[in-house]
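Project standup — Tuesday

K.O.: blocked on the structure for the chain from last sprint. Re-posting the sequence here as requested.
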Amino acid sequence: MENTLNAEAPPSDPWPGYFADRGHTGARRIGAGVEGVVYRLGEGRIAKVWSGRPPVGFDLGRQVYADIARHPLPFAAPEIFDVEDHEGVLVTYERELPGDPMRADSAHAAYERELPTRYSDALLAVLRGLAAVPGTDAMRQLTVQGDDRPLWRDHDRFRDALAALVARAAARHGAALAACVPDFDAGVERTRKALRSLPDAPVTVIHGDLVPPNIHVDAAGRPVAVLDFGFYTTAGDPAFEAAVTAAVWDMYGPHAEEHAEELSRLFAHELGYARMTLTVYQAAYALTTYDLFGLDDGDGHFRWCAEQLRRNAVFSA
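H.V.: unblocked you, prediction finished:
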């Protein structure tokens, strides 16, 4: 839940009293967003009071969080402890995540050319941690944003499931992307062929959106929490996580291309992934998310995806 609205509680806010009646004295409103309001309860817990019904797949998402929690990580991840219905209003009790965002999104802050070691070290720690969490049946049932079915449906291998997703996504609004990307149809087929040719790989949890605001760090720069699972969360090859993270860490800054290349090389070397595998996955990511926010150059994400494909060595071979 994005806490983007004023956190100040209205004078008649009944929820602190509601939580006090349940043993959470001193509950304090700390944020609000389009989905509802967040209260800090103390002892490492928060409560979310939903303004509407939970999103489709809420129970599945809760199970995914529980699956992740079964495997000790060097940082916190979301976890839903309890759910209750109060007069038709959903209330969830969740883990309070520590730390502060690694840094502002590159759309709102220009990143320096030099990539500080504290950031690359934090990214490597997160990638290693998530790669140690096995993929589960619940993760395989998740649907990637923008698609109409669980990613793994009718597939036994991540590479084949992703190739099928590329085909579906290209069929959605591919004409818009083809207007900006030369040889589009052939590039789609090259990417799908490259995906299907990838070697077998471990199946682990994939966050899929490790942009800097979704990684919280402590005062020393160590990652202490990862949040906002759901955009592209699934089970899959951990190399996909590394490829996407390298690409999205700096999407809009003046040195974005250089940072993506530097991180891709670093992750390939430190984590043992083939550099070309990361390139294949980066093309697949652009092809499966290009239309989620807009369909022309007026949208930053669409423009970024088109740029990625024009210079991707697999798509544009």
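K.O.: great, moving the ticket to review. Residues 159 and 196 are 6 Å apart (CA to CA). Confidence is low (pLDDT under 50) at residues 1-6.
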